[in-house]
Design a protein that fits this description.
The protein is α/β, with parallel strands linked by helices and about 400 residues long. It contains twelve helices and eleven strands. It has helices spanning about 30-40, 65-70, 110-115, 165-170, 180-190, 210-225, 250-260, 270-275, 295-300, 310-325, 350-355, 365-375, and strands at about 5-10, 20-25, 60-65, 80-85, 95-100, 130, 150-155, 200-205, 230-235, 335-340, 380-385. The strands form two sheets. An eight-stranded mixed sheet has the order 2-9-8-5-7-4-3-6, with helices on one face. A three-stranded mixed sheet has the order 1-10-11, covered by helices on one side. The longest helix is centred in the last third of the chain and has 17 residues, at about 310-325.
Length: about 400
Amino acid sequence: MVNQRVIRRLLRWRKWAKRDWAIAASAAGFAVIIFSLSLIFGSWTKRSSGHHPPDPLWVHLSLSENAKSRGAACLDGSLPGYHFQKGFGSGSNNWVVHIEGGGWCDSIEACSSRKRTPLGSSRYMEDEVKFTGIFSQELLENPDFFNWNKVKIRYCDGASLAGHHESEFKNRTQLFFRGQLIWEALMNDLLSIGLSSARQALLSGCSAGGLATLIHCDNFREILPNNATVKCLADAGFFLNEKDIAGHHTIESFYQDVVSLQGVAKSLDKDCVARMKPSKIKNIFVPIASDPHGNWFKCKLNIRNCDRSQIEVLEGYRNSLLKTLSEFQQNKEGGLFINSCYIHCQTWMAETWHSPSSPRVDNKTIAEAVGDWYFNRNISKHIDCPYPCNPTCYNMDFTGHR
């Protein structure tokens, strides 16, 4: 929400990137819930294509053809993969490339556990995934991008596709820290099947995938034709570097561990790294350690359970967020969509992307705001009023997933 803010569309902030990009940020209090529940919502079992009749919504997993020769591998050494749906008609030369989210691992132990899940191994990934929201081929559900080529990149390195293999030797582990090589291998695959001829392209990502989008946006622009329109959208990929509810910089130390473990700094923008520590990437507002008595437990599961004092704390986070973005709001070429909905990542679900019941700000759905920004139809800077003012919000209830 704007307290647990999903921020959308921050494009081309020159201090952060050289190219056109957009950021969608989630406020930290909610992000911690999604981080802990992401493994619950993901299927850890292979899906058989025989379980349902052929359906264009379901798209098969493809393992990278050149990953082995490049040394690219998931945490467990298996080949990385993606789901590809071919575009048609006027969208045949246009591309949406979306990077899956799923948190990070900051230690050998955490990464070792992760390698036995779809977030660390293609051996556990579903054979098929459903394409909805920004992936949809339905005009009414996805009016601007429905007939584009669509790619969902599976996330299996635990460091936003930014790890470097030199860290494997430094840490003396059997794990594979090769996120950067995964990015390069998958881009090579996509270039060979048509991305090299793209006229329009949008790189997007959710949460950890949103961070990967920011890290790789400049390179994505560089590998595509000079005359192509290329922009980047990070959905729930921007978090303030704020103290948590106990006044601790909990996640700053967490990210220092991620950066150190996998050698992530080598993939970060050199100008940014020169100004601040590589670990200052994200922050989570209500980590378990900072809430030992569980006072925020019910609030984190369902925003309607938050009491007035908790809402006021979240309002303070909202104010810090808007203050941080105040300079960016003056950027004529940039765009953002900040709504007050209690949900993490909103681009890939039909319910939140563009449907009769989707969240709206200034009477715009997320899809309409992104389309306005991408095609330069209108200035696209939409900031919602504080929770619970927006009756169109799609607020998720996690009480059944404890």
